[in-house]
Design brief:
With 900 residues, this protein is an alpha+beta fold. Helix content is 41%, strand content 20%. Strands 1, 4, 5, 7, 8, 10, 13 and 15 form an eight-stranded mixed sheet that branches. A five-stranded mixed sheet has the order 17-18-19-21-20, covered by helices on one side. It has a four-stranded antiparallel sheet with strand order 11-12-16-14, with no helix packed on it. Strand 24 and strand 25 form a beta hairpin. Helix 5 (313-329) packs across helix 16 (633-650), helix 6 (345-362) packs across helix 9 and helix 9 (409-425) packs across helix 10 (427-441). The radius of gyration is 28 Å and the shape is globular. The N and C termini lie far apart (82 Å).
């Protein structure tokens, strides 16, 4: 029989993206019902591929033809119902055609699949410290087909059993409990293969039915620590934590097990449904593209969450939310799974909402909703104002649609809307509806009406209109408060004559105008308490669903100093304060007692800068005048990031050097006033490193590297902080290559290698930028993490103070021309993750030329892949927004002066 082998180009296996439409999935599920998968994988970690023998049993409409998904490097044999199929006739790039099906079918495929280094499929990583090989799978959305043949769609669930042959000294983990490894002789005899060096076999029992994207294989010399808890139904649940050997000393198992136990107790109590799987492993894996993945009973997590250096408190909180997000998925997504990807929100919005609720109520991070308002909702608002905005329940016609839909709408807007829904139907009714939903649909697939039906039954509310307005329409409303006053009788004071709350749709060119929505929100009155503090004097809870609502309760009250719209952040909407309230709130930000109030003010101020309603200087000055009073770590981190954007994108290039120097100078001042060693001090040290610009500031950074003392303002200059300093110095061409090499030798880890790559490409010279750009273009075998690291450095300092882009070296044309000529090709030859990274990270700096070139590219490429078109439209929208902000900032007479 002929053997099918995938073509190669320049020694690199072509592994581009392959689509599947919703209609194809519908047709296939009408024909096929899968009974079981049995996969045998031989994993040595060596070579470019691994062998897989798969046996799939399924029923089908007699005489029909369908296909199974598989992205192979070669196919040795396909046997359908006892007959061998000619591989050259039925195998294509991503599918194997299955003709002439019977009512009952058995399919056997013997093939080789490629190890990946893109974070998709079966990712292979070699630890530079000890040369050990680590493997892990990442299958969402459509990448199980890179590891074994599968009907790659969520509604074709089936039990998956895995038999894994690997080196006996390795650890192998899958969705089922890990069996005791045994002698693989029988497996090798069956496969007709010779055993390798000291192999063993792990035979995992098939768990309950699931879709292919949440199956998992993790293998390598991982180290682990174990514990156990008792589920609400009395069953013992083994717990495991895994990471690479070279990171194991940093694994804080006690904290992670504590979060996990708290999450189990909270979810089982609130859902009324016991944990549905036999065990719960959390595996911290290298070069992971996302934060984590909810593989049933075998969650993979970005290993950056194993802290080898000091993290901010914000990052520790983020890890807590991530752990609880993935645990929530064991019910939302794994026990009950969406039928098709348009209901992705049934997975992600619920996990996002539940993880924040659990963090706030079951862990030490009681202000988790403040973090949510500051980080998640700002992500959602940004996404909802892009030309690619979409309903929470999105229209997903194919995989190309869903692969770029893991965004701020699907996660954060959906979670915000669920928070409102809980308030509307009642918490008890909400969770009672969820229990009915889980009980009724366990191990099956659902759509939006399945959930709404259960919530309607328990709450007695009709959710059709709510669903249409909040879930099935895109866009955001703008809510404002208008305050009229009049003199109080017999005094010189003013009182409120009328308080009106208005809403209108926020319009986006090319998008439908959003409907006015029902909102439950609060309006807060704040005034000076006579002791220099701005305190809430009155709060007005409102339900609004029209253009204008008058708050009768406010009439006759003393005029407040500040009116906070959406006080306590109850609804999802853009807001605007009246002019006087915004001025007082911004200038007296430090006088608010609650972090949430401070951050709502800063969020509103930032939104006005993004919309070109006020200059970036106003935001920069407000933050630097008041950040000593911002003690909420995630809130402070958000302001630090937005400061970088304000200076680096929303000020014109000619103003940035002076602004960076002023910001760094302010951080240096603040470090003399805040307690040393605190999280605030840590973030201010990092802020100084990021913005240091003058010769004196650069000299200060150099002294921090050279000093014999290991601390600065009570902050230890540990490994990762040392790298931050080195990268900052490299970005100013103020450090020798030998110093970068010396540090890389001191820190020979994979993280150290990435940091060194960023530092070398951050140098603001044509030679450094050209070398980085060519490396990314030419080295198609570069791992995902290295590509991201080089691209990060490449973007740093690429635009000069005059606004021009650094010149490239021959044979390159200018970087902008190279980008627009090549970007389409990346989506033809690279995987989705790599193509997305290159499209976003290599996009030219903002300028009129970039905006014009992007518009021309879009006009010239109407048939480009949908994901690419979406990202390019978003790039264009962000560039236009930045140019508008720069114009407003240029026209402003505001100066960057700080201090109160």
């Amino acid at each position: 029989m002929a053997k099918y082998t995938r073509t190669r180009s320049g020694g690199h296996l072509k592994v581009p993206q392959y689509n599947l439409t919703r209609e194809e999935a519908r047709r296939r599920s009408s024909i096929v019902d899968v009974s079981s998968y049995e996969n045998t994988l031989i994993l040595t970690g060596k070579g470019e591929s691994f062998r897989v023998r798969s046996r799939i049993r399924f029923t089908a409409a007699p005489g029909s033809t369908t296909f199974i998904d598989a992205i192979t490097s070669s196919v040795e044999r396909i046997r359908l119902n006892g007959l061998d199929l000619e591989t050259t006739e039925v195998v294509s790039a991503s599918r194997i055609t299955l003709p002439g099906l019977a009512a009952e079918n058995e399919l056997i495929i013997d093939a080789h699949f490629s190890y990946m280094n893109t974070g998709e499929g079966l990712h292979r990583f070699v630890d530079p410290i000890d040369d050990e090989v680590y493997l892990y799978s990442q299958f969402e959305v459509p990448d199980a087909r890179r590891v074994f043949p599968v009907f790659e769609q969520p509604d074709l669930k089936a039990p998956f059993s895995f038999t894994v042959v690997a080196p006996a000294r390795w650890t192998v983990v899958s969705n089922s409990p890990t069996p005791t490894p045994s002698d693989p002789s029988e497996v090798f005899t069956e496969l007709g293969a010779a055993p390798g060096d000291d192999p063993a076999v792990w035979e995992f029992a098939p768990p309950p039915p699931r879709s292919g994207d949440i199956t998992a294989i993790v293998a390598g010399p991982y180290r682990s620590v174990h514990s156990e808890l008792i589920s609400s139904d009395g069953s013992p649940v083994p717990l495991g934590l895994y990471c690479r050997d070279s990171l194991f000393e940093h694994l804080d198992a006690e904290n992670l097990f504590g979060i996990t136990r708290a999450g189990f107790e909270f979810y089982e109590r609130e859902f009324g449904v016991a944990y549905p799987f036999e065990k719960y492993d959390q595996l911290f894996v290298p070069e992971f593209n996302a934060g984590a993945m909810e593989n049933a009973g075998a969650v993979t997590i970005l290993e950056n969450y194993v802290f080898r250096s000091r993290p901010t408190e914000a990052l520790v909180e983020r890890r807590t939310v991530t752990v609880l997000h993935e645990l929530a998925h064991m019910w939302f997504g794994d026990l009950v799974t969406m039928k098709w990807w348009n209901d992705l929100w049934l997975n992600e919005s619920f996990a996002e909402f539940m993880s924040t609720l659990a963090t706030a109520e079951a862990t030490d991070y009681s202000e988790a909703w403040t973090t949510f308002a500051t980080i998640e909702k700002s992500w959602a608002y940004r996404q909802d104002q892009l030309p690619s905005t979409h309903p929470i329940v999105a229209s997903i016609e194919d995989l190309a649609d869903v692969e770029v839909n893991f965004d701020g709408i699907t996660y954060a807007k959906g979670a915000s809307v669920l928070k409102q829904l809980v308030a509307w139907v009642g918490r008890e009714e909400f969770f009672s509806g969820l229990k009915r939903y889980f009980d009724k649909h366990a191990w099956s697939n659902t759509e939006l009406p399945d959930l709404l039906g259960e919530l309607e039954s328990t709450s007695g509310r009709d959710l059709a209109t709510w669903s249409k307005l909040w879930l099935e329409e895109s866009g955001v409303n703008l809510i404002e408060a208008e305050l009229d006053t009049e003199p109080a009788k017999g005094t010189d004071d003013e009182v409120v004559s009328e308080l009106r709350v208005t809403q209108k749709p926020w319009t986006i060119e090319g998008q439908p105008v959003a409907s006015l929505r029902p909102h439950r929100l609060g309006i807060g009155f704040y005034s000076d308490n006579g002791q220099g503090r701005l305190v809430r004097t009155h709060s007005f809870p409102l339900d609004i669903d029209s253009e204008s609502t008058t708050v009768d309760e406010a009439r006759g009250l003393p005029k407040p100093d500040v009116v906070i719209v959406n006080d306590e952040d109850l609804t999802y909407a853009k807001v605007r304060f009246d002019r006087e309230s915004m001025h007082v709130a911004a200038t007296r930000l430090s006088d608010f007692d609650e972090s949430l109030t401070q951050l709502l003010v800063l969020g509103t101020l930032w939104d006005t800068v993004r919309d070109g309603e006020r200059p970036a200087q106003d935001y920069i000055a407000t933050v630097l005048d008041n950040c000593a009073a911002v003690t909420h770590s995630s809130g402070l981190l958000t302001q630090m990031r937005q400061l970088e954007t304000a200076v680096g994108a929303y000020l014109p290039p000619t103003a940035r050097t002076e602004a960076h120097a002023a910001v760094a100078g302010r951080f240096a001042e603040l470090l003399t006033t805040v307690p040393g060693g605190t999280d605030q001090a840590f973030q201010f040290v990092r802020g100084f490193i990021k913005h240091a610009t003058t010769q004196a500031q650069i000299t200060q950074l150099q002294s921090w590297l050279d000093t014999a003392e290991s601390t600065v303002h009570g902050i230890t200059i540990d490994t990762d902080l040392t790298w931050e300093i080195i990268i900052a110095l490299a970005a100013h061409d103020a450090i020798d290559d030998s110093a970068i090499t010396d540090m890389a030798n001191t820190d020979p880890s994979a993280t150290g290698a990435r940091q060194a790559a960023t530092a070398r490409s951050a140098r603001p010279t044509s030679a450094a930028k050209s070398k980085a750009f060519v490396r990314i273009l030419d080295d198609a075998d570069m791992p995902n993490s290295e590509l991201s690291a080089i691209a990060l450095g490449f973007a740093s300092g690429l635009q000069t103070e005059s606004g021009e882009v650094l010149a490239s070296e021959a044979p390159l044309q200018d970087f902008s021309t190279e980008y627009f000529q090549r970007v389409s090709g990346w989506w033809e030859t690279r995987t989705l993750e790599m193509a997305q990274t290159m499209t976003l990270r290599l996009y030219p700096p903002v300028s009129e030329h970039t905006v014009k070139a992007t518009g021309e590219w879009l006009n010239d490429h109407p048939a480009a892949p949908k994901g690419l078109l979406r990202l390019m439209r978003e790039n264009l929208a962000d560039a236009k927004r930045a140019l508008n902000a720069q114009e407003v900032s240029s026209s402003s007479k505001a100066a960057l002066t700080f201090g109160r």
